[in-house]
Amino acid sequence: ILANWRRELLGITEKPIEKKYDLVVIGGGYSGMGAAISGARMGCKVALIQDRGVLGGNGSSEVRVWAKGNIRRGKYPRIGEIIEEICDHAKKSPGTYEEFEDVKKETIVRAEKNIDLQLFHHAFKVEKQGSKISAVHAFDVRSGQVTRFSGPLFVDGTGHGTIGFLAGADHTMTPKGRMGMSNMWAWTNDKKDFNYPKTPWALDLNMADFPYPRNFHGPWFWESGYDKDALGDAEGIRDWNLRAVFGAFNAMKNRDGANEHKNSKLTWVAYVGGPRESRRLLGDIILTEEDVVSKKDFPDGFVPSTWSIDLHYPKKQYAKKFPDNPFISYAVHGKGVDRSYGYPVPYRCFYSRNIENLFMAGRCISVTHEALGTVRVMKTCGMMGEVVGRAASICIQNDCLPRDVYESHLDDLIELINLPGKAFRPTVNDKIIIPDDAMQLAGRYGAPNGLDPKKFPGVVDDSQAIFKGKWIRGQGLKPYFSFGYQYTSDPASSTTFTLEAPKAGQFDTRIAYQPHPNRGKSVPVEVSTGDKTIKMNSIVNMTQKPSFENGFHSVGKITLRKGQKVLVSLSGKGAQGNVHVDAAQLIPVD
SS3 for 107? Predict the structure, then answer.
């Protein structure tokens, strides 16, 4: 009766509004945005359905988790260019409202003529024909108007695997010990004193019951719900988090922290929880921790996952009062993930093994609980969406299904993901256009964020040197060339640069490093011609400032013929500290 009355008053149609697309994407977080933009630019007509009024999911201003996961690197460094366009650059998590750039995200999505953005729409029903989804129903949460979104292809970017679950997709969920949900918060000190009402409904906390919120914010580890029902009781988990936050601030204002916080006030509390783990939909591959750590190579390994295997657990120190529902967590970061190059997550994790036309992207993909620890961060999830969107265009173009892309059109998918993120075509059958503002191709370790070797005469970057032994990549000491530098304390390790004289004459041979107290005081450097007719040895004290700008230091002058090769070698033997290797240079002596 109430529903009929509401429809009558609001003028809502009894039958759903009908809309048809090539690709229906449910979920407006990074995964869904990546899939929608990628598919649209490759010529698909796309619906992007989001139940909130803003895009970004956990990366929106409502939740304020900063976007993590390195992009534009690995086997296919074009992947991630779309996410580069939409991602935030927040300085901390939670940051300010402005840092999460809700307007930027929505503006970029709405600029795509092939995307029909449906904000405030909650998907609640799935229609099927056999083992395929035929339509998804969603209602406008502001009016109750139902729309039926039909099409040949669907993407579950809900995080919870909701569409897959409603469609009967094979799925799993770790029964106990899952990662929880966070509600972060922020506070400040004002010039005047502020009263804070007592909160008898909040958790009964004193200052020792929680970690002090340093830097004026309560970050990711304000987390609970590990063994609770992450789906049926998500609001209960959120409410428990809120009771913890308000109880903690009550301790700061009205209990044993009162004297130190007279002028303190809350500035923001996330009323939308940020979940980490629930359902995972099963694909043709279920990625495991062992696959990642052993670097198992799949022919369809595309998306570089660079986050560590990061799993969260309740912190016992703060679980004494509420052992059945702790609200503070700690993280365990496993080893084995190459955080510069990334582990290439296979495409076969991105479609359902039993619902033939269902893609998935984000934390509901086909992985184990442990493997979820590395793939779940937002930029990585967004790159999954990029791959899915381009795969969808192949499906539309060839009238095929997601599995067929792997089995019959993998080369076509590789061709598309090697295109710039801004490449586009109006329809799937049109010619692809590369716009002038396409991003420059990044390298195996990402887009260079250091000095460009091409802008300096005679410079060879460390990425072109030959390394032996154990070396560690670094970016902490600036400036550096390209992607950073490498360093070692291993006496058995060495590296060799090969330089070439552009003309005949005398040249100054230089190495580039940045000084630091832990650098080697006596680093051996050898300069020799390729035929070994000339050989010079020197010792460099890398705790001291180099001779020239940008970290260059002379290690000897040498006379060369045009095209003659020069080898510059550094060794850890007897270095008395870390050997720092960034670049080498051959520069003419005037």
Answer: helix
Q: Does domain 2-172+279-306+341-417 have CATH number 3.50.50.60?
A: yes
Q: Where are the alpha helices (DSSP H) in 287-439?
A: 289-293, 369-375, 378-398, 402-408, 410-417
- The pLDDT value recorded for residue 1 is 66
Place of tokens 């719900």: 225
Which CATH class for the 453-588 domain? mainly beta
Residue 288: predicted pLDDT: 98
Break the chain into its structural domains and give their ranges. Answer: 2-172+279-306+341-417, 181-269, 453-588
Query: CB-side exposure of 434: number of CA atoms within 13 Å?
Result: 9
Angle between helices 30-41 and 102-110 (to 10 degrees): 30
pTM of the model: 0.87
Kindly give the parts of the chain with pLDDT less than 50: none
pLDDT at 2: 78
166: which 2 tokens? Answer: 């409603």
For 349-368, what is each residue's pLDDT tens digit? 999 999 999 999 999 999 99
In this structure, is the dihedral angle defined by the CA atoms of residues 457, 461, 467 and 470, taken in order, positive or negative? positive
191's tokens: 């010039």
Token readout for 317 is 């120190």
Please enumerate in sequence order all residues whose Cβ is within 8 A of that of 335, keeping only pairs 6 or more positions apart, or say none: 293, 308, 309
163, containing H or E segment: helix 162-166
Retrieve residue 61's tokens. Answer: 């201003």
**CA angle, 422 then 398 then 72, to 5°:** 30
Task: Using alpha carbons only, give the angle 264, 266, 272 rounded to the nearest 5 degrees.
Answer: 165
